[in-house]
Solute carrier family 18 member B1 (Neogobius melanostomus), 349 residues
Amino acid sequence: ATSLTDWTNRELWSYRMTRQQILTLISIASVNFSSMICYSILGPFFPNEAVKKGASQTDIGLIFGCYAVCNLIGSLILGKYIVQIGAKFMLVTGLFVSSGCTILFGLLDRVPAGPPFIALCFIVRSIDALGFAAAMTSSFAMTAKIFPNNVATVLGSLEIFTGLGLILGPPVGGWFYQSFGYEVPFMLLGCFLLIMVPFNIYVLPTIDADASKDSFFRLLTNVKILLICYLIFTLSAGLGFLDATLSLFAIEKFNLSPGYVGLIMLGLSLPYCLASPLMGYFVDKYPATRSWFMVTGGLATGLGFCLLGPAPFLNISGPLWLLVIMLGVIGFSLGMTALPTFPEIITCV
């Protein structure tokens, strides 16, 4: 009976989705795409621009890092109260906040260099992270609620739009920066994100949910969940490291323009975008392979980072083609590692 039910659910997913499911997919896909393209435009040119404004390499790393810290804190708090706030309201509000912060970030070049510029970067970036946390937390919750039997497949499909945002952000940002200056990329993409607000108000269905009676910290008593959280932590740390350092490294070592740096970053996001749907479908169809995917992907990511520079202990030179190939390896292995984590945590819970 269980096998028949699982087969029926897969057939319904393959041939017919409800109106609520279709609208939810459209809405979350728009959130993933618009949020990621606004997030990723900083990579090719912001570190170099921040250096001109008197920021050190440590300051730049902390500006990128504060985004992750506020995202972490916001996700914990908003995840706890999402039922009381409402998933739809949280998502739309998060989009609105992120759009405003993206536009404000584009005006920071008018701020005096030194401490005022650095302080405002921290403030705007932190508030943007809270908006992003609201949008993504609610989108994950709605995905698990509406597609309980196909979580990884749906996430893999939605990651196409996440990947597209990551793909388009660096080259579009680098090209607009070269052509029109610092402000234009943020203004255009912030306005684009703002347009998504009324669109999602109209499209996104209202979802009822019951509040959980369990404490979040009770989840951390499960060893497997702790290991998965550590895996997500290391992946996020790796991506944060690349955000803060890759563009400066490519500009200094290979004498590339911000536009070409944006194209090089396609090596990271394009394999992830292409691999995610296949990985999601596979881990849904064969749940027993999730652990193997996470372990293999983690090892491949580690190897990619060792050869990306490359690491000094390898005593080899790092040509540009090696950098691009290793970014591709990291992007593909991220899909292998990250996609199984969400359905696996749900299974553990």
The two ends are 23 Å apart (CA to CA). The chain has a mean pLDDT of 79. The chain has one domain: 20-348.
